[in-house]
Write a structure and sequence with these properties.
Elements (H helix, E strand, L loop, with lengths): L7 H17 L18 E4 L5 E6 L5 E8 L12 H9 L2 E2 L2 E2 H10 L5 E4 L4 E8 L3 H13 L8 H16 L2 H14 L11 H6 L2 H11 L5 E7 L3 H12 L20 E6 L5 E10 L7 H13 L5 H9 L3 E10 L4 E10 L3 H17 L4 H18 L3 H14 L4 H4 L1 H6 L3 H11 L6 E6 L1 H9 L8 E2 L1
Parallel strand pairs: 2-8, 9-13, 9-14
Antiparallel strand pairs: 1-2, 3-7, 3-8, 4-5, 6-7, 10-12, 10-13, 11-12
Helix pairs in contact: 2-8, 4-9, 10-17, 11-12, 12-17, 12-18
Length: about 475
């Protein structure tokens, strides 16, 4: 038999691969102790009109991130759910003497782009700029918030853009499931209506937009956060020049929504769908409530820690039912919600749901093993520190503290408190908050394929199907 000679270079490569494979089977080095989070020294004060300011020298790059958070969102619009989103769009269409393209061009010249988002509780304006342009950026945002053009001629185009975006979301399974889930969980509040109807959108006039800005925007509802490298004295002068004579406006006010903790199921037909989109969840305690840290660890253990989470290991790695599953805690004003979201192979929908309910029951019944808990705590500590290690991430954390009424040392002691969470505390938090008998379930998929199996699930016997 003819023997094939292996070229020397290929032989060396094969030997290297064999050595790497041998090393892969060796023991993984132990994980080190997570480092505590160090919050940079900050300067906080208020202008005479109530405008709150937080300045945080941070990093070495010659850039600054400037973020204005206004306590005014969809919940401030008196039931007109599309107004706040249209306000956010209109604010970018021109301010003071600048047209919309001129605003965008000026922001780009400063090294960034102007971003404006409206949510249920807040409107956020932020701009990332070169350090030496920080004062100019504050002046630009001053024009945008205090002297927006808000021209009637722009509104039809912006409404058409929003209508297209809404139509796209409603054409996708995730969008359909998300809208149905929000409505079942939060009812007719702004939290329960994430997308406007065509009628609501058509009813918005430029007077509604102008009225929202004039009645809801003001210094008393606004907090300015700046992180990065900047001249503090120059920034203070710029804030006084741009906002020192801004009227205080109304004080901030919030009405926390009351979410449903009932076992409700909605099945939505999507004929021929190869996958079923699943959303499962319920309202849970807020970050300011006792026991939130153990609850956040329980969430991470279930599905909030990527491939090391129980649900990802079970549904993806072991069974192959899905490409991935995630669980999330979303804080709102005074309340929070827990959500499981995944897309499952249609024939495996019932089996995957059964496994999800079993994993929930397992965590509620028995504390996790010490080594599993330590892996999850380390993961959470690492993602927290990484998330707060950028200018935008740090400002997001500070704004979160203010929204939830948490003290500043909440960040400083986060890793320490996280590492102190015990297995029994995780089980107790899951038992108290993650009750599958109180969860809302939405499934979007091919009902001819998935409905019989779902109806037969033991965990859903007695549930209300809507």
């Amino acid at each position: 038999m003819k023997r094939t000679r292996v070229p020397a270079a290929l032989a060396a490569t094969l030997l290297a691969l064999a050595a790497a494979a041998a090393l892969a089977h060796e023991a993984v080095p132990p994980v080190g102790t997570p480092h505590p989070f160090a919050l940079a020294e900050r300067h906080e004060y208020r202008l005479d009109n109530g405008l709150a300011v937080t300045l945080v020298p941070f990093g070495t790059a010659p850039k600054a991130t400037i973020m204005f958070v206004l306590q005014a969102g969809s919940s401030s619009a008196g039931g007109q759910h599309a107004v706040a989103d249209l306000v956010a769009a209109c604010l970018k269409e021109g301010a003071g003497t600048l047209s919309g393209p001129a605003v965008a061009r000026l922001a780009a010249e400063m090294g960034g782009s102007l971003n404006i988002d409206a949510g249920p509780d807040q409107t956020t304006v932020w701009l990332d700029v070169l350090s030496e342009r920080s004062s100019d950026a504050i002046a630009l945002i001053g024009d945008v918030l205090r002297r927006p053009r808000l021209r009637a001629a722009e509104l039809p185009r912006l409404k058409a853009d929003m209508a297209r975006g809404v139509a796209i979301q409603r054409s996708q399974a995730q969008g359909v499931a998300g809208e149905a889930f929000a409505q079942l969980l939060w009812g007719d509040s702004v939290y329960g209506r994430p997308l406007p109807t065509a009628e609501e959108l058509a009813a918005v006039t430029i007077d509604h937009v102008r009225g929202f800005v004039s009645s809801q925007f003001g210094a008393a509802r606004t907090h300015v956060y700046i992180a990065g490298r900047f001249d503090g004295a120059a920034v203070e002068r710029a804030l006084l020049a741009a906002f020192g004579d801004w009227s205080a406006g109304p004080p901030a006010s919030h009405v926390s929504p009351s979410g449903s903790r009932a076992r409700v199921v909605r099945l939505i037909d999507r004929p021929g769908a190869a996958q079923s989109t699943v959303m499962l969840g319920l309202p849970v305690r807020s970050p300011a409530a006792p026991g939130f840290m153990p609850l956040s660890v329980a969430n991470a253990l279930l599905g909030g820690s990527g491939l090391i989470s129980r649900l990802d290991q079970s549904l993806r790695e072991d069974k192959g039912y899905t490409y991935g599953v995630g669980t999330y805690i979303t804080p709102h004003a005074g309340v929070a919600s827990w959500l499981l979201s995944t897309d499952i192979n249609a024939p495996d929908t019932a089996a995957a749901l059964d496994l999800i309910f079993r994993e929930l029951a397992r965590l509620r019944a028995a504390p996790p093993a010490a080594d599993e808990l330590q892996r999850v705590r380390n993961y959470r500590a690492g993602t927290f520190v990484l998330g707060a290690s950028s200018r935008g991430g740090l400002l997001g954390q500070l704004a979160f503290l203010d929204q939830q009424g948490l003290p500043r040392d909440w960040l400083v002691h986060y890793v320490e408190r996280l590492q102190a969470v015990t297995p029994d505390e995780v089980r107790a938090a899951a038992a108290a908050d993650l009750d599958s008998q109180a969860m809302t379930l939405v499934v979007v998929g091919d009902l001819a394929t998935i409905r019989p199996g779902i109806l037969a699930l033991e965990a859903l016997q007695g549930a209300e199907f809507r």
